[in-house]
Input
Amino acid sequence: MAWRSTSLVAVALMGACRSAPGPKDDTGGGGAETPSECTHAAPPEIEDLSVEEGEPTADGPTLLVRLSGTDADGDLQEYEVDLWFDEVVNGAVEQGEANHIAPGPVSLEAGPCGAPEISSEIEIVLLGDDVLAYDTLMEFAAVLTDGAGLSSDPAITTAQTPEPLSGR
Output
């Protein structure tokens, strides 16, 4: 397959796997939160998926995939995003090897259960073959897998692939 991807990760680390806050103190603030044990039983959920034309590179035009996800048990400190695409816009994308893009795993500097939300950007450079056709309406599916190996349901969106650089 002739495409290249780069993963740019922005992460929002917020409290997860926490017990209920303690009673309010006399200043009106909440009491301290105590971490509880992680369950690693909740699969992640994709909250938002978008694919749009990115900034062209010297190698070719690009697509920018933006994905945000959550995980109730907070184990997105390690995660993977898998992408698939096809030219049949019907609300379903076959998940095969020939149409699969796997940018690779991401590890964050968060402790166990310390990453209940992620926001990720993946740049895909179209290198001029017929795998990702230029100037074509395509459907894209994404699956988010957390550190425990649990996967989200697929999220699906459509996007127009860019024209070749020579056609601009």
Notes: The radius of gyration is 19 Å. The CA atoms of residues 62 and 125 lie 4 Å apart. Residues 7-36 have pLDDT under 50 and may be disordered. Strands lie at 3-10, 45-53, 62-70, 78-86, 100-101, 106-107, 117-126, 137-145, 155-160.
